[in-house]
Design goal:
By secondary structure, the chain is an alpha/beta fold. About 25% of the residues lie in helices and about 20% in strands. The strands form 4 sheets. It has a 6-stranded mixed β-sheet with strand order 8-16-9-10-12-11, covered by helices on one side. Strand 9, helix 5 and strand 10 form a beta-alpha-beta unit. Helix 5 packs across helix 6. The radius of gyration is 22 Å and the shape is globular.
């Protein structure tokens, strides 16, 4: 008789884990979006920095019938249609239980409170989920893997990661993620907050338009922004690094004016009588903008497993063993291609049978690469069988 494995999140790593676990477990996947890979669909128009071969497993390629090239870089939509889609269809036809529009609310060790220590390794888990329309259900399972990622759980724009004054009230006016349609920004003043790949990717999409407008770019860092990597094997990343440096130096491109506020922080957000946003920076400067785009990164939602015994890092909020290994090896930040799998023992935590995989395993770190997640799947399969 097979044990039951519940996978939280039907993104790339959740789906990878499911196809590898089918022969050993009865698999259930809970995905909060209406369809699989809901997060990927939100950035489907964006090209991955890494080539096809770093984003797929051998087993997945065989199932999808996919032949990949080392110098081809898929968009999110291409990754969905050519790889994740066929894998999802395979899961559906192979008996996996696929629950979309299903949000995991909480989970606990069966028959145990969080503080109970004795015989905690015995028994499985109870998982509370909320379905479409608010209906709730309790799912019992033997093992749980949280592959839900961090997308959508954005960091605040205020100083030190705290909400700026007024940010919670005006949160609905703040644009998150990577907007596909740029028409609403043309001819307007847009503030972009952030100094990572998402920020410059969005700014690149704006300055590619010949309509023009104004960009106020606020970054907490002032030095070392978008430093180029010698002989960078990722041409898209290198091109964005060059563009960022040129925009900061030249103050714009084409019809777009770019004002960089390096070392800047956001103190307060207000809405004026015309519906524009008044942004007060840390130095007291007030900037009126039509749109504000937050590209400040993401953090893990740890509330779903707060009733389990999970040791988390005080700095990243990722699982402690992996976080410590990443810190000691200089990982979790910097060049994503420099990331390597840290070994199966780093995926373990005090709660036997529970694992955090994928982007969420890096906590607030941004250097996670899908190839690392695929390696995690291989390692956790061995741990799940124990």
């Amino acid at each position: 008789m097979k044990h039951n494995l519940l996978i939280v999140g039907a993104g790339p790593i959740g789906i990878e884990l499911a196809i590898h676990a089918l022969d050993t477990f009865d698999v259930t996947i809970c995905e909060r979006a209406p369809s699989f890979a809901g997060n990927v669909r939100e950035w489907g128009h964006v090209s991955l920095f890494s080539p096809w071969d770093l984003n797929v497993s051998n087993k997945g390629k065989n199932i999808a019938g996919l032949e990949v090239s080392d110098d081809a870089f898929p968009t999110g939509d291409e990754y969905l249609s050519n790889y994740l889609g066929p894998l999802w269809s395979h899961l559906s036809s192979s008996g996996a239980k696929l629950l979309t529009n299903t949000r995991v609310v909480s989970m606990t060790k069966s028959g145990k409170n969080k503080g109970d220590m004795k015989d905690r390794g015995d028994g499985g888990f109870k998982v509370l989920v909320e379905k479409e329309g608010g209906e709730e259900e309790l799912i019992c399972c033997d093992k749980v893997c949280d592959c839900s990622g961090t997308w959508g759980n954005r960091n605040y724009v205020g100083e030190g990661g705290m909400p700026a004054l007024g940010e919670r009230k005006l949160g609905g006016k703040i644009i998150k993620g990577l907007p596909k349609e740029i028409g609403k920004f043309e001819g307007k003043t847009t503030m972009v907050v952030g100094s990572g790949a998402s920020a410059i990717t969005f700014i690149a999409s704006l300055v590619s338009s010949d309509k023009g407008g104004e960009i106020v770019w606020v970054t907490r860092r002032n030095e070392g922004l978008y430093e180029r990597i010698e002989n960078d094997p990722l041409p898209q990343r290198d091109a964005l690094s060059v563009l960022a440096q040129e925009l900061i130096k030249e103050g714009g491109r084409g019809g777009w004016k770019v004002t960089h506020k390096g070392g800047g922080t956001i103190k307060e957000l207000k809405e004026d009588d015309e519906g524009r946003m008044e942004v007060t920076l840390g130095d007291g400067t007030v900037v009126a903008v039509d749109e504000l785009v937050s590209a400040t990164g993401y953090r893990p939602d740890t509330t779903i497993f707060q009733e389990l015994q999970v040791h988390q890092c005080y700095a990243t909020e990722g699982p402690m063993k992996l976080a410590a290994a990443l810190m000691s090896s200089g990982g979790g930040g910097g060049d994503c291609l420099a990331q390597v799998s840290q070994g199966p023992e780093t995926l373990m935590n005090p709660e036997k049978g529970f694992f955090v995989l994928g982007m969420k395993s890096y906590g607030r770190g941004s250097a996670f690469l899908l190839k690392v997640g695929i390696d995690q799947v291989r390692m956790v399969m061995e741990l799940l069988k124990q």
